[in-house]
Every structure is written in structure tokens, then in C-alpha cells.
Amino acid sequence: MKIYITSFFISLLTFNVTLAQEKTFNKYIENGIALHDEGKYQQAIKQYEKALKINKKSTLAHAEIAYSYIGLNNAKMALKHVNRAFKGDKSDNFPMIYVLKGNVLDNMGKTKQAVKIYKQGIARHPDMPMLYFNLGITHMRAGENTKAKNAFITSISKNYSHASSHYYLGKLMEEENEKIPAMLAYYFFLLLEPETVRADEIYDRLLELSIGSGVVEKTGKDEISITLNEESLGSGFSSIELFLSLQNAKNLGDEAYQKKTKTEKLTANTESFFNLMSEMKAENQGIWWDFYTPHFAHMVECKVITTFCYHIGLSKGGDIALWMEAHEEEAIDFVNCVNEYGL
Length: 343
Prior knowledge:
Blueprint: H1 2-37, H2 41-54, H3 59-71, H4 75-86, H5 96-107, H6 111-124, H7 129-141, H8 145-158, H9 163-175, H10 179-192, H11 197-211, E1 216-220, E2 223-226, H12 230-233, H13 238-252, H14 255-258, H15 262-280, H16 287-302, H17 305-311, H18 318-326, H19 328-340
Antiparallel strand pairs: 1-2
């Protein structure tokens, strides 16, 4: 009986010590994350090192240290700790270590190794969108645009609310002179992220692509020149690009249109664009037709394109922000419409 009681109290003591250590460990990790977020990377590392004294095989602690060393631009130490994270106690519980290691290798110029790590992560965690997104970034940096495009599209298929995937897909398509796909990706990016610095940049690009003179030029009193990209002529978007160009050509001579604000012009062109995409959907397939087009067609059906075009310009503030504030009911209808489709 005495042996039983003694063993019980020893077990209880061990249990309490373990709980105390776990609490202290978690506190060090929390402190480290807070310091990292403030940009105090060296101080954050010291907190993580204290956590490692409690559990030297912690995947989490080694991964966080690696992240802070990235902040210090110390790739060597970052790689050292991310490798230890892989050998840690719960590596399967932290799929982000594949993203972390891939980032480190990519930043070191080790593109092939980075791609290999991302693919290993995808094999173990096939539903994790960040692996596909970061794989896309690595391919894009290497000039492998087709592979990058496919990776971004897969990332979107896993999580269509990941704004950066739409952002870089749009950038990539514009670089490839694919105007229509670029516009679709930009519209959706701005739907998700309308008020950031990069949103301000993309809104300007979208305005240029949608209402800018671009490929349309007035060469005489009754003459207009339209120039199309050779790349678009062989794609499934050539007729749409031609239509938009003809529309812009018509608008050049439309006094009522020319008196409109930029947002009003964007609204008119956007609705025409979405309607045309919807009409041609049955003849085509792929992300542009099976994902983007139905989303935007639903907005047309809801009659919220005007509000949508003000929403995506919120980074500009001013009259656009004032319009949104003054049209609360329309804003609510817009949000409801978007949510109806599952965003």
C-alpha cells in the first residue's frame, strides 16, 4: 500500500512538473513571436532558445528561430534550424516547414533544391495551398512561367481566397501579354484586397487595361487604329480582346462616355466584359471560364457591378471612399451577393 501511494505521488509530481514546463515553453514561444512581429529578431531568437532548453527537439521552436533568422537575412542559420525542425518531435504537424525551407533555399539561389522541397511537401500535404503558391513564386523567379502559372492556379483551386495567388497570376499573365486573363485575376485580387499598397498599383493597371487607350488610337478625324498582340490572336481570348478594343474605339467618339468619371467608365466597361465572358463560357474551359467567369457573372445578375467597381478602388480613397460611405445599402447588397456565391 505504501509503495502504491509513493508511486502515485511521484507520478503526480512528474505530471505537475511537465505541465509547468509546457506552460513556460509556450510562454517563451509567444514572447518570441511577439518580438518577431515587432521586427526584434535577435531578441525573439533568445526567447526561442530558452524554449529549446526545455525541449531541444521542438519542431516549432526550431522553425520559429529559422523564421527570425530569415528576418536577419542569415540564410545559413535559418537553414540550420529548419533542418533541425524536420528532425524534431512533431515535424508532420507543421507542414509550413516545407514552405520555410523552400523559401530559404530559393533565397540562396538554390532553385532546384527549393522546387524539390516544395514537391516533397505537396506529396505529404497535397491540400496545402501555400506549398503550390511558393512553388509558383520559385518557378516565376526562374523564368519558368508555364510551371508558375499552373502552380498559382492549383493554389487558387485549394484556396480561392488567397489574394496573393491571384495577384501573381495576374502579373504573370500580363507579362505574357495575356490581357484578358490578367484582367480577370486582377479583378478578383482587388475583390479580396482592395485597400493595400499593392491594390493601389493593380487598380491603376486594371484601369489602363480596361479603359486606357492602350491598343486603340485615333489617327484621323474619322479614323481609328487598333493594334492587337500577336500572342492574343492565337488564344481563346482574341475575340474578347477585339471586342473590348472596338468598344474603346467607339468610346473615343462618345461625348457622354468621355464625360464620365474613371469609375463610371470602369463600371460600364466591366459589365460589358463580364457579360461577354459569360456568353462565351460554354465554348471554353479552364480557370478563366470555370472559376472567374461564374463569379463575375453572378455579380452582374445581382446588379452590383457599380458597387463592385467602387469597392475595388478603395485604395484611392477620396470620392470612391465617400461614395461607398454614402451607399451603405448598395454595399450590403454587394457583400450579400458575393457571399451567396461562397466567398
